[in-house]
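*** Protein under study ***
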Amino acid sequence: MRAVLGLVAISSLAVPGLLSGQQAPRARASEIAAPPVIDGRLDDDAWSGLEPLDGFTQREPTEGQPVSQSTEVRVGYDGAALYIGAWLLDDDPAGIVTGQTLRDASLDDSDAFVVVLDTYLDRQNALVFGTTPAGIEYDGQVTGEGVGGGRGGGRQQRGSAGGFNLNWDASWEVATSRDERGWYAEMRIPFSTLRYGAGGPQDWGLNFERKIRRNSEQSMWAPLPRQFGVYRVSLAGTLALEAPARRTVSISPYALMDGFRDYRVPSPETDFGRQIGGDAKIGLNQSLTLDLTVNTDFAQAEVDDQQVNLTRFSLFFPEKRAFFLENAGTFAVGASRSAELFFSRRIGLQGGREVPITAGARMTGKVGAFQVGMLNIQTDEAFHFDDDTGLSERIAPANNFGVLRAYREFGNRSQLGAIFVSRLNTADAGDHNLTYGIDGRLGIGDALTFNGWASLTATPVPTGEEAAGSGFNDGEYGFAGGMRYVTRDWQITTGYRQIGDAFNPEVGFVNRRGYRQVNWRFLRHMRTEGVSWFREFRPHISGNSWWTLGGFNESYLLHIDNHFQFENGAFFQLPGFNFTGEGLEAPFAIREDIVIPAGTYHNIDWEFRANTNRGAPLSLSVGWDLGGFYSGTRFGPNATLAYRYGDRLSASLITNYFDVRLDEGSFKTAVVRFNASYSFTPRVYLQANVQYNDDTKDVGTNIRFAWLDTAGTGLYVVWNDTNHTGSLERTGIMAGPKQRQLVVKYSRLFNLTG
């Protein structure tokens, strides 16, 4: 018989915003004499003296009702770690959805258990540890209560209003098991992995979430209204414990060997290389951490997804390199994906090509009442072979990149902060760029939040030109403000943004300049409580409009739609009408041989999206955009076919097709992507990503084998291959291989503090 676990509920604490008649629970963790074996069985004596922590209530589908399946959690600790055991019983064990056996795999499409720890009790930020019946490690960082990632707290990785950073990889252990009564999870989270105030007796924010996928049920230990997800840290319960005073010191060296051949150079030969480097993590105190990196390499990082650009503006490619993703929320200021004051892809990459990183340091944590972040990275100059000239050309000089960030959090989601970002050519001090910014957030009540930011940039004035008297060039500014109102039934958002025509955060991301923009959205949640197979309607209307600083309307969008959400997660939208306008002050070359004349184009198109139950072994997601586009029409269907065999094998085929017919000419293009993953264990897996881009006529293949240890370290074997399928007449490049590379990288984490 399985032992009964332990966290002793000792009192309740009323928190505004909770469900009527319910209170945020308070519990005390008990110290254990001997640590349990982390095998997922929960049969060690360490659990036997602890009282069960239960009383879970539903957030979905029926807010405030008890969880449909018996759920108990127990928490204990010793001088080294926090131990969490979860009894996730189920009267239909055959209906448990195991999910994919892969670190950080989505928890949306499987049964899951999630722990949220607000170790500073600031009621805004937290660390997340989760798992599924497959026993995966799922971890991340919550900033700003996860605001910006959607109704449920979201999966946003970075953004000015906070979010959730899934790419933080911690060193911890988890194991699960199953039997005829349900499934069980056992976790060991070292105190050296966590950041908190001084050691001794203290309170942490705490919540648990259980997901039962077959009926899309979500239940919490600390009850939450359905408009908020588990990342709503301000409504979490409280855990009392005694944490040790510990300083973390760890190093993670790596060794790498690779073979690379570029078939575009005359007489291509295979270049063999080797490299060593590594990272170190030093706890300056319990709450402030210094990260160091030398000869940083990202050979194991995922490749970018191919995209087709039918707009006049730059595409956004997200950061995927682990060193920059850790604590990314600390440095996030601006408008996500369109006007970011700091965007780490500007460091170590130039035009999609790698720029060597010599060394770097990052310090993050708490100093008194302030959250601080400091980053300094030195890159070396980089060269690239030019296909046209047959010569190597310098694509980037040696640069030093610096970021200083500080903000203070107040009660009720409020925050005020500042950021400074710099780029300095270390061989030419006259070549530099500076960015200054401030940002803030104000929470009023439980539903209303205001946020905003403002920034100035400073770029050397070209020779012969005169700088503005302020020391900044005219137009080197940007600012924005917005409002978000969220209740059980309504989501209302509005915002305004203005970007100067010379706004130039070179270590940031700006997809367009010289505009004013207004956006708004009204969405209504309409529940159908009496229909067991259907969950809700979501009628909504939204609008966006952009003007030049001179008042010319560059584009507008009025979107009218209704979402239909089913109990099992299936979804479709109708009618999905878009009323659009595009204004061109100058001709726009949408393709090299197709130029759209200046003018204003008004159109209507029909947008459709749908998906089947993504928790099923086989699922399908489809959509299209059909209707007017500039002087003609556009038909843009897309589809994703996903298949999962047990918890080991998963694969998906993703297609995006565009058929554009204009008065000035027509073209068709597509992007096709195939992803597959086979997991031998939760830490040993093989992944493949094959992409075809019809614009470039390239097929790119990325195959990664990983045998991981902890915190993302271990053995990686990576194969990269780019083949051109077009003809010399069509693209100017001969068909055949372009580049091939084999990389073997091994890293190991050494915890010098035990």
Remarks:
- The two ends are 34 Å apart (CA to CA).
- Confidence is low (pLDDT under 50) at residues 1-16, 148-162, 467-471.
